[in-house]
Amino acid sequence: MLGFSLKRDEGGSVLVEATIMLTIMIIFVFGSIDFLFFLYEWNSATKAVQVGARIASVSDPVAKGLDFLSASLISRTSPPGTPMPTFSILCDGAEEKCSCTGSCPEGLIAFDRTAIRTIVYGRGSAACGDATSSYSMGMCDIFSRITPANVRIEYRQPASPAGLGYVGRPGGPVPTIKLSLVNMQPQLFFLSVLLHDLRLPEISTTVTAEDLSSCAPQATGCTLDR
After folding, report:
1. Residue pair 108/72 in contact by the 8 Å Cβ criterion
2. Does 138 map to a domain?
3. Which domain holds residue 184?
C-alpha cells in the first residue's frame, strides 16, 4: 500500500514543472541578449568594413608595388595606352602575404604591413580609439576587436571594357578593391560555452580604387580630406 500511495503522490510536481520552465526561460532570455548583441556587432563590423574599403581606395596599397604595375607591363605587344590586362592580387593580413594571378611580373608585389595597419588603425595611428576626426578613423575605431589578421584585401583588374586604367598609366592601375572581414568571433556573454565555435559571417565591400598612394599618411603636406 505504501508503494501505491507514493505513485499517486503528486506533491512537489509544481516545483518540478517550475524548475523546468524557469530553466527554459533563463536560456531564452540570456540567448536573446546574446543574439541581439551579435546583431549589433555584425552591424558595427559592416560599417567598419565600409570605412576600411574607403581608406584602402585612397591610401598606399597593401600590395606593395601595385603602383608600378602599369609601367612594368609596357612592352612591344602592350604599348602605353593599351587596356590593362587582367590580374587579381589577394593580400591576407593573417599570413602577411600577397599572391597574384594574371599579369603580375615576378617579384614586383609584396605585402606592406604599414598599409594594412593604416586601414585597421587609421591614418597616422597605431592603436584603436585615438581618432581625433573622421579622417584619422580606422576600422578598429568602429569595431575595436578588429586586427590586421582579420582583414583580407583583393585588388582585381577586370577585363575590358569594364576595367579602368591603361598600360603605362602614371598613377598605376585602377583596380576594384574588395575588402573582407574574416574569422571574427562574436563576443557572447551567456552562451559562449555552447557556441564557442560561432563566427561572424564574412563581410565584404567592393569599391573602385580612386587615388592609390597619392596622399599617403606618412607624406608631409598631405592635407586632402577624403
Report:
1. yes
2. yes
3. 13-208
